[in-house]
């Protein structure tokens, strides 16, 4: 049954190591070995039984999706969220400076720039929340 173990190990080589992944791997190995034993009782040779069990196993992607074992590219997602946060901070700062300059140049008697500044501040706040959520998901 070493071939079944090799097959299951190869299936799980791209799946992150976790307790749940280990349990699923053991369960799949056990089920495949049971299938091979049943096929051998029906009169098939061990090699034929192993081949048939592996062929009838199905698609690994469906199993990973169902059990939610794998998390795709968590490092890239977190890095992208961090870049988005930095971009939103710099963009907000530039927009705030623009509003202040426009307010001072065109209507220094009325302090209207406060209102768009409050609106612009929601952008980095939302990106901070997005980054923080990605960081918490990875833990």
The secondary-structure class comes to mainly alpha
Distance from N terminus to C terminus (CA atoms, Å) equals: 36 Å
- Percent of residues in beta strands: under 5%
Largest beta sheet, briefly? none
General form: rod-shaped
Fraction in helix: over 70%
- Alpha carbon gyration radius: 28 Å
Count of extended strands = 0
- Number of structural units classed as domains: 2
Secondary-structure element pattern, one letter each: HHHHHHH
Number of contiguous helices: 7
Residue stretches low in confidence (pLDDT < 50, at least 5 long) are: none
Overall mean pLDDT? 85
Write a structural description.
The protein is an all-alpha fold. The chain folds into 2 domains: 1-71; 76-137. It is 78% helix and 0% strand. Helix 1 runs antiparallel to helix 2 (19-41), helix 2 (19-41) crosses helix 3 and helix 5 (74-106) packs antiparallel against helix 7. This is 2TM domain-containing protein. The chain crosses the membrane at residues 85-106, 112-132.
């Amino acid at each position: 049954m070493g071939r079944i173990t090799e097959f299951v190990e190869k299936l799980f080589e791209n799946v992150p190591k976790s307790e749940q992944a280990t349990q699923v791997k053991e369960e799949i190995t056990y089920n495949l070995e049971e299938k091979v034993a049943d096929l051998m009782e029906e009169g098939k040779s061990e090699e034929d039984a192993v081949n048939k069990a592996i062929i009838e196993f199905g698609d690994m992607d469906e199993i990973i999706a169902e059990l939610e074992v794998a998390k795709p590219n968590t490092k890239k997602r977190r890095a992208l969220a961090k870049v988005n946060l930095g971009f939103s901070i710099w963009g907000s700062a530039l927009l705030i400076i623009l509003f202040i300059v426009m307010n001072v140049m065109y209507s220094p008697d009325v302090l209207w720039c406060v209102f768009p500044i409050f609106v612009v501040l929601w952008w980095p706040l939302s990106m901070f929340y997005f980054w923080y959520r990605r960081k918490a998901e990875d833990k």
